[in-house]
Known about the structure:
This protein has one domain (about 10-130): Rossmann fold. The protein is globular and about 50 Å long. The protein contains 6 helices and 5 strands. By secondary structure, it is α/β, with parallel strands linked by helices. The mean pLDDT is about 95. Helix 2 links the parallel strand 2 (about 35-40) and strand 3 (about 70-75). A 5-stranded parallel beta sheet has the order 3-2-1-4-5, sandwiched between helices. The structure holds adenosine-5'-diphosphate.
Amino acid sequence: MNTTEKRIAICPGSFDPITLGHLNIIRRSAKIFDEVIVCVMLNATKTSPMFTIEERVGMVRRAVVRYQNVRVETASVLLAEYARRYQGAVIVKGLRAASDFDYEFQMNLINKKINPELETMFLTASEKYTFLSSSVVREMATYGADLSGLVPEELISEIEEKAKQWRKR
Ligand code: ADP
């Protein structure tokens, strides 16, 4: 790699919705890399997301607005294909538990098959967020539980509002 080249991290996920656990990984990546691209994936396997892709992107944008070197994109292709757009970019993922490891290890092998140049780095989840996932947030929001400390403060009312509509379905 040329030393003048920017070091780019891609933080992928479905962010349905973004949590403080995701934000922790994004913030730490932004300290290590010159630029971080948060890639909101239109995940084909998660069939009924709570938030539309536009809502998810909007929430991620609001959550990262204070970070100068972070931007948000979407991808509807496989991550390994998407990453080809950014020469030398590294995928950065958060690791919470053994179950994450097994899944990520498998994903990494598949990504390498498709795009052998692509590297993935893992940051261990911060202790206070090891239990936190978007599905925990969706579950708690659906039951009207307090979301503070789980998602960015500025997103709580939007998530609560959506959960209310979700309950009425
Ligand atoms: P989730 O697993 O919450 O549904 P995503 O599929 O959007 O979230 O996950 C995107 C990435 O963020 C994955 O690499 C996942 O391991 C990581 N991640 C999710 N929650 C946390 C957390 N609480 N701490 C650290 N990393 C996390």
